Amino acid sequence: xxxxxxxxxxxxxxxxxxxxxxxxxxxxxxxxxxxxxxxxxxxxxxxxxxxxxxxxxxxxxxxxxxxxxxxxxxxxxxxxxxxxxxxxxxxxxxxxxxxxxxxxxxxxxxxxxxxxxxxxxxxxxxxxxxxxxxxxxxxxxxxxxxxxxxxxxxxxxxxxxxxxxxxxxxxxxxxxxxxxxxxxxxxxxxxxxxxxxxxxxxxxxxxxxxxxxxxxxxxxxxxxxxxxxxxxxxxxxxxxxxxxxxxxxxxxxxxxxxxxxxxxxxxxxxxxxxxxxxxxxxxxxxxxxxxxxxxxxxxxxxxxxxxxxxxxxxxxxxxxxxxxxxxxxxxxxxxxxxxxxxxxxxxxxxxxxxxxxxxxxxxxxxx
Length: 367
Hints:
Layout: H1 2-48, H2 50-57, H3 63-70, H4 92-126, E1 139-142, H5 146-171, H6 176-180, H7 182-213, H8 222-229, H9 247-271, H10 279-310, H11 314-319, E2 322-324, H12 325-331, H13 333-339, E3 344-345, H14 346-356
Antiparallel strand pairs: 1-2, 1-3
Helix pairs in contact: 1-2, 4-10, 5-7, 5-10, 7-9, 9-10, 12-13
């Protein structure tokens, strides 16, 4: 009996030892897995943190190394890997570009846009909307054809899209990244880059087409100077004469024809870096593009305000194509005298829409 009991205890003890050994091996495997996962986590964190990645990938640059680079004594260790490149990996002109972009262009661009928006808001609160001085007659004049309206709204939509995506590319790191976090901002910046790069050339081509189509109506005349002296009718009580386009509209046109074309040209340089332009050229193109685009965005706020909320009847011309006879008399009297015999009633416009679908006469002007 005692012998059987001893054998049973021996079997139990051997079983316990096997269980203990198996448990120890499992514990060691789990501990090893935890250590490996911790290592992979540190690698992932280092990759997610650009500053930490830089300190791991490249040691700190000393003042002697900077002096060596600036003096041209770069040597093979400081050359970059781009084909046929004469630039150093540590590029002094790149730092100059970064300082100009971040310390001057970005803040002053936001001041210009924010300041313009604030002035427009203040003007609206103090002066208010410019209403028609006389009642509407119900007689209409065709001002914009369907083709020009479609071209205008396409260009306007692209302009707003490019302005918003460009502001995100320029300032999103400082604003949206802080508000939404890295994950959401990364998606925003990636989408902004794709939209900006692919829509930019389309906008450039269509803007040139629109500028060429409207050049005849925007040639400066003597009465445009009077329009500016009287502030577009806001200074004094006398009526200000204007042709198809007034002085302010012509100023916006020629701003687009000069600064706008410069922004388009610099954008093409940035969008297509495969024509052997060097880094210096790309850096200057970036500064010119940013300054011009920020300026146009600021001025465009005034154009948008006057054409929508600021002036009664102005938006109707670009949505329906027609303006009321009273609006034409008050804002473009010289043009009204040229086309006043072409007025039509709303009933006639409705009949044209039912017959032709556009509401326009069979032969229309494009401007």
